[in-house]
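Late entry, written up from scratch paper. The run itself happened at the end of the previous shift, but nothing got recorded in the book at the time, so transcribing now.
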Amino acid sequence: MLLIGAVAAIVLALGDFMVLTPLANAWKARSQRIATLRAKVDKGQFTLDRETSTRARWEKYKRRGLSADRAGSESEVLKMVSDWSARSRFNVSSIRPSWRDDEKDHVRLLCRVAGDGSVESIARFLFQLDAEETAIRVESLELTARDKEGRKLGVDLEFSALQILEDKEPATRKKS
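Output as recorded:
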């Protein structure tokens, strides 16, 4: 009896070690993998449900970028700076545009603007730059006093305008 009990205990221990434990671990791993895949499917479905609004936003962003023609884009930005300067009574002494091809999907037109004016004219100039619909970002701004009272300030401003490069539109999802 004792021998049968000992053999049964060994068989049960080996069965647990070789069959039940690996099966339980595989079951847990599969459950976790299923949960991960379900989360990915839910996220993908959420993305697909938002396709229309995402495409509309992307079109809006593309319209805010510079045109595909570099010379035309540069001319457009120079005209904007001239308009902002005239409206704000900010004296622009130099504008130095340069193109940066850092990324494969977009190009930046960096413009370095130097000029001077009163605090009010500089504030109006910067407000108009910020309020512009075109995708423009101020990279750096440096102010220096040009007179002892600080009424006339010198400005060294660097901003970038974005030109989005796009070879072709991504394929739209077929509705089923």
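The first strand starts at residue 91 and ends at 100.
(Scratch paper discarded after transcription.)
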